[in-house]
Specification:
- Keywords: Lyase, Metal-binding, Zinc.
- The chain is mostly beta strands and 135 residues long.
- Helices cover 5% and strands 38% of the residues.
- It has 1 helix and 11 strands, in the order βββαββββββββ.
- The chain has a 5-stranded mixed beta sheet with strand order 9-10-4-3-11. It has a 3-stranded antiparallel beta sheet with strand order 1-2-5, with no helix packed on it. A 3-stranded antiparallel beta sheet has the order 6-7-8, with no helix packed on it.
- A hairpin with a 6-residue loop joins strand 6 and strand 7.
- It starts with a strand and ends in a 23-residue tail after the last strand.
- The mean pLDDT is 93.
């Protein structure tokens, strides 16, 4: 069964289509994900064997990889939004959940790299929550 997903960056310069099924969904708390997201974790979906097609803005994409690791990020060079990374050598596409415009049909499988989470990442569920900016 094939699934079609769409997404874009914050400024709208880069848009993509992904044909394939998300098999894993991890919330990663490693220091690299915290640095690239500026928050407690990255929410990444993994689609083995998926086909990623850039509909616009492929020339606006930048790529960064930590040498000697699998850690890589593709991002819009205009607005900085994390975008999908097509890891051909690993046979999968990693998609930041936040860049999707279509619904995600799976729930996160796990929080990972909790051993290196930020010291402020405890009890976030206990923090007040608002539908908009609090006054």
């Amino acid at each position: 069964m094939s699934h079609l997903h769409t997404g874009s960056c914050l400024c709208g310069a880069t848009k993509f289509e992904l044909e394939g099924e998300f098999k894993r969904f991890f919330l990663c708390h490693c220091s690299r994900c915290r640095k690239t997201s500026g928050t407690a974790h990255c929410a990444n979906l993994f689609a083995p064997g998926a086909t990623l097609t850039w509909l616009s803005g492929e020339d606006k994409l930048s790529y960064y990889r930590v040498e000697g690791t699998h850690f890589a990020r593709t991002f819009c060079s205009l607005c900085g939004s994390n975008m999908p990374t097509d890891s051909k050598e690993r046979g999968l596409v990693a998609v930041p959940a936040g860049c999707l415009d279509s619904d995600v049909d799976i729930m996160p499988n796990a929080h990972i790299f909790m051993g290196s989470k930020g010291n402020w990442d405890d009890h976030l569920g206990d923090v007040a929550a608002f539908d908009g900016m609090p006054t």
